[in-house]
Design a protein that fits this description.
single chain; about 290 residues; mainly alpha; Rhomboid-like fold; two-stranded antiparallel sheet; 4 strands; about 55% helix; about 5% strand
Length: about 290
């Protein structure tokens, strides 16, 4: 025999109910149910949502973007510009690849003309590679796939969290991917690509979809296919960057959607700052190990 006690409506303590608000999780009776885009919400959340809409705020506190695709378009433009620069200056042999790719420890490269070029790594002071690597591509298919994913995922996420939070998500996920690469990739292996940030977007979208109880089966399929491709191509694909970006995106999204409503922005900034400190600590720790 079940001993489970049915919850009671938060506005009508005398009414049992098995229905919960899709936004805050509080139990609500049929009289308190308000139709929402996904499921039902309680009157309090409906009022808060209306207030946020009037104030131009998203559900998770960000300023609502007039053009949710703009940030993704700018990011795509930067990636394409770097790719054009590399292609126009020698492709894989371009000096820009050596300057921008993430390399843990410096090395010497033998050029086709027989000369030798010294390449700096993060340990040698080229710390910018932790950032520039996520904007660097050499292969056409590599940049095409990543930018196509950004084109589809970016506007959806910016519409949900706002421009500043979306840009933070993209960059911090990419940095988390770089930290994983710095720790787990052979020290003389250069790494390029926006894949860490892209995996971060997929992880964040999955967390948000689960939070609002939307159908996330397509996201799981897309993520599963990318994980399979990463595993099958682990000899030439940076699984380290993909894993780090995915972990970063999930953690960042958890900060966005589960921060308390009271002083939400403060909680979000604190959570993001903590993640940034962890990434910085990982980079410093790895550098001390390699020096």
């Amino acid at each position: 025999m079940s001993t489970e006690v049915a919850p009671y409506c938060y506005r009508h303590p005398d009414r049992e109910t098995h229905i919960s608000c899709q936004r805050c999780g509080r139990p609500i009776c049929p009289d308190c149910m308000r139709q929402a885009a996904v499921g039902f919400q309680c009157p309090t959340c409906v009022q808060e949502g209306a207030r946020s809409t009037r104030q131009g705020r998203t559900t998770y506190g960000g300023k609502r973007s007039d053009n949710p695709a703009l940030t993704s378009q700018v990011l795509i433009g930067i990636n394409v510009a770097v790719w054009v620069l590399i292609t126009a200056t020698g492709g894989a042999a371009s000096v820009w690849v050596d300057r921008l790719a993430l390399l843990a420890v410096g090395r010497r490269v033998l050029l086709p003309d027989g000369s030798i070029r010294s390449v700096e790594g993060v340990v040698d002071g080229a710390w910018w590679q932790l950032v520039t690597a996520m904007f660097t591509h050499v292969d056409l298919m590599h940049i095409a796939f990543n930018m196509l994913a950004l084109w589809f995922l970016g506007p959806q996420l910016e519409a949900v969290v706002g421009r500043a939070r979306f840009l933070t998500l993209y960059l911090l996920s990419g940095l988390m991917g770089s930290a994983f690469v710095y720790w787990l990739t052979p020290v003389f292996t250069p790494t390029v690509g926006a894949s860490g940030a892209i995996f971060g977007l997929m992880g964040a979208l999955l967390v948000i979809a689960i939070k609002v109880r939307a159908d996330y089966s397509q996201i799981l399929v897309w993520l599963g296919l990318n994980v399979m491709i990463t595993i099958l191509g682990r000899g030439f694909i940076s699984w380290q960057g993909h894993l780090g970006g995915l972990v970063g995106g999930v953690l960042i999204a958890l900060v966005f959607v589960y921060s308390p409503r009271s002083n939400r922005s403060v909680w979000q900034v604190a959570g993001l700052a903590l993640l940034a400190v962890l990434v910085l600590g990982a980079v410093v720790g790895r550098t001390l190990v390699l020096v």
